[in-house]
Amino acid sequence: ALELIDFKNALEQFQNLVEKMIIQKTKESSGSYTTDDDEIDFEKFHTTVQTLFGPAVKDKNVQAFFRKVMNNPDEKPEWPEIFGCFTGESHGMSSLSKENMVLLVSEKQQITHSVVKRKDVIKGLVKVPLLNFTVTASQKGVLTVFSKKIKSFFSYSFYFHQDPTWVNGCDFLPNLKYIVAVTESTVILWDYKSKERQSNGFVIKPMKNCLLCVSTVTVADSLAKDTILMGDDRGYVYLLTITSDDFIMKQSKAKKESQFKVLDAESFDIPKRKLHDDWVGKIRYFPALKCFGSCSTDSINSFILDDIKRLEDHLPVKEFSVPKGVNAFTYCGKAKVIVTGG
What we know:
Radius of gyration: 26 Å
CATH class of the largest domain: Mainly Beta
Helix content: 10-25%
Strand content: 25-35%
Structural class: alpha+beta
Number of domains: 2
CATH architecture of the largest domain: 7 Propeller
Order of helices and strands: HHHEEEEEEEEEEEHEEEEEHEEE
Number of helices: 5
Strand order of the largest sheet: 5-6-7-8-12
Number of strands: 19
CATH topology of the largest domain: Methylamine Dehydrogenase, Chain H
Mean pLDDT: 81
CATH superfamily of the largest domain: YVTN repeat-like/Quinoprotein amine dehydrogenase
């Protein structure tokens, strides 16, 4: 109880210190600040924090906190950041040591299962919250599903080796319950649920251009089909709809290749539209906006955000220009903000 009271007192003093820093920085910005003995520089801030919390704080976290306050006083950091973490769930109090009495930090578990071999890299990682698992795809064709059950991870994967080209991305088809991945010339559909995981799936080929990214269009209008978006190396964005009937009706007459059955790409209606003048680096569908986004290093058509119907009707699209293009983007629903990185 005494330690708790001491910590609350130290925290109150720390928050007062931060308030003084914010006032000081605000006055500096307005030109009304005059230097005096109460000026708080980094050395004074560092010494005060070490006095209040002792070895519980690390120098790098103190520096990061100070920079955040000085760079943006209107959005001051949360106090747990001074310890380099945020409060989280705890699975019990019995294992607490004196080092983590201040904050309860949720435990992290390292997955030691090796999903890739040497000279291979992960090219895609997708979380599937509804089914509580994660999908990864490696460049050389290892697709893996990690599932957490009873506080332990298990995984299963297969090595897709019939196509020598690299895998460039993956996603999950929520209605058909398949894993989708794209290579330079094919679309892979893997039935991860099958007991014969090594031999149950489909390959759609040949695709004329090099596919670089893939994303699922998440809509709840049908349980028997899924729609995916794909981008290629010539600036085209594709819209491919797959139904459960396609797995039966569109199989190639050729013999079954080593693992997967072949579906003829020519038998699918795949609308496409050239939206960029360079590679499509990333594509994603945002259910909250009912729009898709795609980006490219193209400086003119750097980022596109519009309805997927634009891929079929060819009406003007909402496009944004960024010098040297865009490499990545994401959407935050809470803040209603899209952020791009060039």
